[in-house]
Design brief:
It is a single chain. The protein is an all-alpha fold and about 375 residues long. Helices cover about 65% and strands about 0% of the residues. The chain has 18 helices and no strands. The model has no long low-confidence stretch (mean pLDDT about 90).
């Protein structure tokens, strides 16, 4: 049953008021402590992860690329580092194109993203819809439309490179996910625009797409030039577990990001397209403190299931006969990539200044001047 949206503004006002009360009382939460469980700590799990060794050079190239097409904005310096954490072992030409693709994605997010779209005037909303219509319907031939904008030209250039350096079946799936991400992300994501309040499960399914995490996880294969043999995985019943691993990796990345970006999205831009607000809207009696702890619990449960499934697949691979050594090595390499993606989802959000602020309810997003850019 769809929930009525008539009380969303009132609920937003309550969350804003309770947020100000927490800030005034200097109440803070540690996202890490909320996500840790048993003997597992994110700090220990992630401590060996380092960004790509050629990060400085790659960042310069990405900035030059953005400037070439007129899509460089100041806050870009805080987000183009993301891929450098996600794929630290990628070949140089592949990591460059992935960082540039990431730059396009964040550029669109920061000018017409789901938390900003409702603040645009009618003319800008119309132009944004037309641009997204063209960018989300790009097909395998990667043809440019007439009078293409600079961001469209840049997008096709990068997609062409990825197409030329990957198998057909993989690129076709990647392109479909990427275009769907473009389609569902750059529009008003608020409940009143949709006409109903999403359930928590519905929101999570959509958020995996709006975040781009599904195609980001696919890029693990591309980064290592290590494309999974899906037929072989199906033969041994590994494909079902692997599909779930991919989904959970996507969910952890985007939902942990909802914790980090809560203040940017909900407090600054009053969007309810954020896990914490969806939890608040589905639980109208919850205080903000209860909303925070419940939202973090959802992310923690995803993390626990994901780590358990990774171990399950590794154990299954060890029991397979020697004849499958090549496929086993390939899948084990991919699982290491999944673990690095998981680590990167955490480490980058702690590292970047994108979500930092002088006053915050989260220790990890509190601005400290010594934090690296």
């Amino acid at each position: 049953m769809k929930k009525d949206v008539s009380l969303t503004a009132q609920r937003m006002g309550q969350i804003h008021m309770q947020y100000r009360e927490l800030i005034s009382a200097e109440t803070s939460f540690s996202i890490e402590k909320l996500l840790n469980f048993g003997d597992f700590t994110l700090k220990d799990f992630c401590q060996r992860l380092n960004p790509h060794p050629e990060s400085e050079t790659i960042i310069k190239i990405a900035q030059q690329f953005c400037e070439k097409y007129g899509i460089w904005i100041e806050q870009a310096k805080h987000y183009i580092t993301c891929e450098l954490f996600l794929y630290p072992d990628a070949a140089f030409d592949r990591i460059v194109v992935m960082v540039e693709n990431n730059a396009i994605d964040y550029y669109l997010n920061d000018i017409i993203g789901r938390d900003l779209f409702s603040h645009l005037n009618a003319e800008k909303q119309f132009k944004a819809r037309e641009l997204m219509k063209r960018m989300s319907t790009v097909d395998y031939n990667l043809r440019l439309p007439n009078d293409a904008t600079p961001v469209e030209i840049a997008n096709i250039e990068l997609l062409q490179f990825i197409k030329n350096t990957s198998p057909f079946h993989w690129f076709e799936k990647f392109l479909n996910l990427y275009c769907h991400h473009v389609d569902v992300t750059h529009k008003d994501g608020n409940s009143d625009a949709k006409g109903y309040i999403s359930s928590i499960d519905e929101y999570i399914d959509l958020r995996c797409h709006t975040s781009g995490m599904h195609h980001i996880v696919m890029l693990i294969e591309y980064a290592d030039n290590n494309f999974i043999d899906t037929t072989w995985c199906s033969t041994f019943g590994i494909d079902v577990y692997l599909h779930r691993v991919n989904f959970l990796t996507s969910a952890f990345g985007c939902l942990s990001n909802d914790l980090f970006s809560f203040e940017k999205e909900v407090i600054d831009n009053s969007t309810d397209a954020n896990l914490l607000m969806i939890v608040a809207l589905n639980n109208p009696t919850f205080t903000l403190t209860e909303v925070i702890t419940r939202s973090a619990k959802i992310v923690q449960e995803i993390l626990i299931e994901l780590l358990g499934l990774i171990d399950k697949i590794k154990n299954q691979l060890r029991d397979l006969p020697m004849i499958n050594e090549q496929q086993k090595r390939s899948l084990n390499k991919y699982l290491k990539g999944i673990e690095k993606c998981l680590q990167a989802s955490w480490m980058w959000q702690v590292y970047t200044k994108r979500y930092k602020r002088r006053n915050s309810v989260f220790q990890e997003t509190l601005l400290v001047e010594s934090i690296a850019v």
